[in-house]
Amino acid sequence: MDPGQFVDTLAERLRRDGAELVEGARGTAVGEDADRVEVRTGAGTYTADAVVIAADVWSRDVCASLGVRIEMAAGTMEFDRDPDRFRQGPMTPDGLPPIGPVPGRPRILLATGHTMLGLMPAPATGRLVAGPLTREADPGLASRFAPSRSVRLRRGQGLSG
Fold first, then answer.
1. Are 57 and 138 in contact (CB under 8 A)?
2. DSSP label of 97
3. 115-124 core/surface letters (b: 16 or more CB in 10 A; e: else)
4. Nearest-CA neighbor of 55 among 15, 128, 109?
5. What is the per-residue pLDDT across 14-44, written as a single tens digit (0 to 9) for each?
6. How far apart are the first and last CA of the chain?
7. For the chain, which has fewer Cβ within 10 Å, the N-terminal or C-terminal residue?
8. Which one, of 81, 84, 110, lies nearest residue 98 by Cα?
9. Looking at per-residue confidence, does 88 or 142 come out higher?
10. CA-closest candidate to residue 2, choices 95, 159, 119, 101
């Protein structure tokens, strides 16, 4: 599968279905109050019923705006056993990506830390993210990837702090 073609096709489909896609706008903070979730970006502020933070290693910075520290480090993966061909990506201490609601924030979900797996885990990640929002989560599977394994809560800095 060509990842670029996949993303272009997906973007086209989302636009056709009425979604507004804002490209090149770096997310800088997420917060919430009783009625909404807010995402602040370089292109403006957006509100939604729920938000998925899927910003690779930069997810740490976005989560920090909530007072949440994600324990991730840049990991490496070797390609073709060639020591000159390494790539870096975010990795949790246990190697599993944190996917699901941020602890104490059921409308803010995390889907990051997939190392260099790219699109391969996308279908499973999609189910793990959709489950809590549709109330169709698989508790056994969700607990293996729950962000609570790799986050530490600090005094909140989001909208509701």
1. no
2. P
3. bbeeeebeee
4. 109
5. 999 998 888 888 889 999 988 899 999 999 9
6. 42
7. N
8. 110
9. 142
10. 119
CA-wise closest residue to 110 among 54, 33, 60, 56: 54
Distance CA 81, CA 99 (A): 29
In degrees and rounded to multiples of 5, residue 47 shows phi and psi of: -120, 155
Alpha helices in 59-121 (DSSP H): 59-64
* Six-digit token string for 114: 């997939």
**CA nearest neighbour of 105 among 130, 132, 123, 124:** 132
Output the pTM of the full model: 0.79
